[in-house]
Design brief:
Distance between the termini: 38 Å
Structural class: alpha+beta
Largest sheet: 4 strands, mixed
Number of domains: 3
Shape: globular
Order of helices and strands: HHHHHHHEEEEEEEEHEEHHHH
Radius of gyration: 21 Å
Length: 380
């Protein structure tokens, strides 16, 4: 159960819930078909202050705690399309938050301020064809040339990649390994940058792109923080990203459980509803128990994160357990639907396939296990 929050948190929840009911739910199916979230949604979210809940007040944000992001995600997830909150979180929490945290005043004015208003959309360019969870192996190179950096390389699986106005991009400016990585904000209209949309089997409403950089010239002033210190900045941001994935997984499981429970009461077989059979009562009881455990672990991680306490291991546990459990819950909830779970007209079909990326994004399950093992003294 979600910890008891303040009256301000609940007022915020009510505002987001009304917005989702009015502006998101009726359009989610169309956005799934279109393969992207429209720019108009970002603009509406920006006008209501929903894009800047954790961004600096000086640059249009609200400077609030992560519980507000949790509430925003929980309400957005009720639209039944994971792609919608993924696109919004990639913009607000991943691509823009790091500029707000590490950027110069000029960068914040040029990118954070319009991003909070929904006038600009951001994407985060880290993953490459040969470097996913192993960030220290990325190869996209940025060479200093006077007052500019010249960037060459490629990125892949980049959310918001074809609709973004800027890409917060991880590049190699030094030698091998994590010590040679920097982060540069690249405007999407930069000459030499090519963007190609990728077709996915899941999260259809969030566009995903492959990016190619061919002698892309970017002002050196677009560097975030210090040169060659970017790996640390990325790792700091991963805690928030992993919490976002944990929350999304928990919300998806809740929605699948509620969908399965409703179906179980309505569907008749052998003269009674499916939930008239003890086997399905017990299987869904197990599902609910696992969901509640995942939520408790996730909320514990959020609490530590909000308090500013070291929480890398706890957050990794939450991300690992919630996303892995989501795969099991998806199987159980799809099974009770029978053949309807395979039909595109069924919400369950979308919910099931959208689970696929949960154990990969923001660090794979294998990476999470490595972090947990290291923090627990399990490594030699």
């Amino acid at each position: 159960m979600l910890p008891r929050l303040s009256e301000e948190h609940e007022i915020f929840r009510h505002s987001v819930a009304e917005f989702v009911e009015r502006e998101v739910k009726p359009n989610a199916h169309q956005w799934e078909h279109d393969g992207e979230v429209p720019r108009a949604l970002f603009e509406k979210l920006g006008k209501l202050g929903f894009l800047g809940v954790r961004l600096s007040e000086e640059y249009g944000g609200s400077g609030l705690d992560f519980w507000y992001t949790t509430i925003l995600l929980q309400e957005l997830m009720k639209c039944g399309s994971v792609g919608v909150p993924v696109a919004i979180m990639t913009h607000a929490e991943f691509a823009t938050k790091i500029i707000d945290r590490m950027g110069s005043d000029d960068l914040k004015k040029r990118f954070v301020l319009p991003a909070t208003k929904g006038e600009m959309i951001g994407s985060l360019g880290v993953t490459e064809p040969g470097a996913g969870s192993d960030v220290a192996s990325l190869r996209t190179k940025a060479v200093r040339d006077g007052d500019d950096y010249i960037i060459n390389g490629a990125k892949v699986f980049i959310t918001n990649g074809t609709i973004s106005n800027f890409i917060t991009t991880a590049v190699r400016t030094g030698g091998e390994g994590y010590r040679g990585i920097s982060i540069i904000v690249v405007p999407s209209d930069s000459k030499g940058l090519t963007r190609r949309r990728l077709l996915k089997t899941a999260t259809h409403a969030s566009d995903t792109a492959e990016l190619t950089f061919e002698d892309v010239r970017v002002p050196a002033e677009n560097l975030l923080g210090e040169e060659n210190k970017g790996f640390r900045y990325i790792m700091q941001g991963f805690e928030g990203e992993r919490l976002v994935l944990s929350i999304i997984a928990c919300c998806q499981m809740r929605l699948m459980f509620e969908t399965a429970r409703e179906w179980g009461h309505d569907r008749k077989a052998f003269g009674q509803s499916l939930l008239g059979f003890q086997v399905w009562q017990h299987r869904l009881a197990d599902v609910l128990t696992n969901i509640t455990a995942a939520e408790a672990l996730t909320y514990s991680g959020i609490d530590q994160y909000v308090r500013g306490e070291p929480a890398n291991a706890e957050i990794s546990m939450a991300k690992l357990f919630a996303t892995e459990m989501a795969r099991h819950v998806a199987h159980e909830c799809a099974q009770i639907h029978g053949g309807m779970a395979l039909m595109e007209e069924s919400l369950m079909a979308r919910l099931y396939r959208d689970i696929m990326g949960f154990t990969i994004g923001a660090g794979t399950s294998e990476t999470m296990r490595g972090i947990i093992a290291k923090s627990s003294g399990l490594m030699e």
